[in-house]
Write a structure and sequence with these properties.
Blueprint (H helix, E strand, L loop, with lengths): L3 E2 L1 H5 L8 E3 L2 E7 L3 H18 L4 E4 L3 E6 L7 E2 H17 L2 E2 L9
Antiparallel strand pairs: 1-6, 2-3, 3-5, 3-7, 4-5
Helix pairs in contact: 2-3
């Protein structure tokens, strides 16, 4: 099953305002305000990722969580990335974390 999509198709989807795409990777930063909230978000991401059998790269910091999605089997983005990105954004909103699609890549 080839469910690959282009970067333009990814960004055109609803519910992905927290995300941006570069080099066939969708990424998002969520400002959590605390390490404990970041841990809760990582746990929620882990649950959703395991349920989808699709696993992102996650970087937990004191006041934010960075997430990167790509589908290695299609060499870029897929519909699975769209679905998981939406689930991650929902989890972040539920926890009060704020998406920051304009963050600079080299910020930590």
């Amino acid at each position: 099953m080839n469910d690959s999509i282009t970067a333009e198709q990814f960004t055109a989807q609803e519910g992905l305002r927290d995300w941006r795409v570069a080099d066939d990777v969708a990424s998002a930063r969520f400002h959590t305000g605390s390490f404990a909230t970041g841990v809760e978000l990582v746990v929620a991401i882990g649950r959703d990722a395991d349920a989808a059998d699709h696993h992102p790269d996650v970087d937990l910091r004191y006041d934010h969580v960075d997430v990167a999605l790509t589908s290695h089997d299609v060499g870029g983005l897929s519909k699975r990335d769209v679905q998981l990105a939406r689930a991650i954004s929902r989890a972040a909103r539920t926890l009060g974390a704020k998406g920051d699609p304009d963050h600079e890549e080299d910020e930590s």
